[in-house]
Amino acid sequence: MTNDLVITSGRVFTGAALHPTATAVAVSGGRVVAIGSDEDALAAVPGGAELFDAAGGLITPGFLDSHVHPTQGGHERLTCDLTDSTDAASALELVRRYAVEHPEDDWIVGGGWHLPHFPGGLPRAELLEQAAPGRKVYLVNADHHGAWVSPAALAAAGMDADTPDPADGHIDRDPDGSPSGTLQEGAMDLFEHLLPVPDDAAYVDALVEAQRYLRSFGITGWQDAILGSYAGARDSTEAYLLGFESGALSARVSAALWLTRGFGLDEVADVVARLVAARDRIGVRTNDAGGSFKAVTVKIMQDGVPESRTAALKQPYLDGHGHPTDQLGPSHFPPEVLDAVAVALAREGFQLHIHAIGDRAVAEALHALGLAAEQTDGEALRHHLAHLQQVDLDDIATMASLGVTANLQALWACNSDQMTELNLPLVGEGRFREQYPFAAMAAAGVRLAMGSDWPVSTPDPWQAISVAVTRVEPGEDRYPPLGKGQELTLEQALSAYTAGSARVTLHDDAGRIELGGRADLAVADRNPFDLSAQQIHTVRNVLTVSAGRVVHRG
Length: 554
Ligand SMILES: [Zn+2]
Prior knowledge:
Blueprint: E1 5-8, E2 11-12, E3 24-28, E4 31-36, H1 38-43, E5 50-53, E6 58-61, E7 63-68, H2 70-78, E8 80-81, H3 88-101, E9 107-113, H4 125-131, E10 136-141, E11 146-149, H5 151-156, E12 169-173, E13 179-185, H6 200-215, E14 219-227, H7 237-246, E15 252-258, H8 268-282, E16 284-286, E17 292-301, H9 335-347, E18 351-356, H10 359-375, H11 378-381, E19 384-387, H12 393-402, E20 405-408, H13 417-433, H14 438-444, E21 448-450, H15 461-470, H16 490-504, E22 521-524, E23 541-546, E24 549-553
Parallel strand pairs: 1-5, 2-6, 7-14, 8-9, 9-10, 14-15, 15-17, 17-18, 18-19, 19-20, 20-21
Antiparallel strand pairs: 1-3, 3-4, 6-22, 10-11, 11-13, 12-13, 16-17, 22-23, 23-24
Helix pairs in contact: 2-6, 3-4, 6-7, 8-9, 9-10, 10-12, 15-16
Bound molecules: zinc ion (ZN).
């Protein structure tokens, strides 16, 4: 059921640009029926409508988050959530309190702790023993590429100095080889069989909480960046299907099926056949509440993150004293396997969403997409590369010529404690300055989309847009801007988070405000075009409309 709605006294960003004159948008039957003056909009719904006074704020299309993990984010909000911790002590206090409030839990799970709060980004197991004596604790960090575990958890996993590192990750250790309390990348999987498995009902609750939370920031749709079982998290396909069937989920969702690692060239056909079956089983689900769900994308993680030396680089990591090591970071897929699987997936009509952080991972991904483009219409499939921290200029030109979209997590494109303490020593000044070359991509004609990677980072688009246009941490001036000249304009950033993300999340009638178009809208409390770039982080979402229905009011 939708009520007619008129939003007045604002300004309108259409998805491409600030509308020269419009102050209002009228909505009827779930569609935009007027964009113009307050009088025009009121006249368009003569039977009367719910009124919302935007009070000088900006009316935008609903934001689309092009890379997000809603099941994990929602689940984390409902478990031991350390996202809001501000230092080690506050993280431990949250664990202590959670342990006391949940005496019956066999395992304490959750996450969201922040690397810079602990020396080297490596908190020790004993800290968890002090906070939750005797309890088995497993907490993923905010970037989800590592986990922190308690001594009881290590004991339950039988993990000790003799436990070998898996091929695709490592156990952090003391000098005597015994595990110190953190696990990186594939080492997290060594706990997968031990952790409590949330049932589908719990995952539906997580997704509904995620939808509520994302909508509070003006987000009306997204691409789930991993649909499948990954790092101890269970496949959430059933939860999505249940949520859409009941109508509890009504956002617009496309999901990226997770490509498991560790297969060889001879297994490519089988792997692809399984993904086709998963896609076809889901089909395109829609419901009366305006929701839609499909999974015609495959997520490929080609490398990790620089902080744990798992991003795939062209030049070696430094040892922390400016000297090169012999480490380049692993490619999660050998290039010949990546090439073969990318071509086979594109031939089946899949969009590819490739995690590429290091410059070598980017080049490998583009090589594979270039081969796919020789046999398929890459432009139509809308492939995208996510994260793009280190990117060679030559590879930017290739992205543009292949029509590959840059899926930006703009919030990360600034200097911060984490970047200075954990990233700078590993890559050195030169490479550090060249990270996240957004303006170079835009100038080369690369299409831009934006996403948050929540729960890795806040899903608030205004925080990411703030960094995209300033290249400094929201509201901070402790560090100079990262990468001089790589700022986007406000129009470029807003357009990326709306129209750009709509294209890459495969929602063709989203991401813009136009007559007759579906009414997915967000209203900001102020017009950021009237603010200085440094003030943009203070903008707040006050109204979210999905298919003509008010789904959040701030
Ligand atoms: Zn992600």
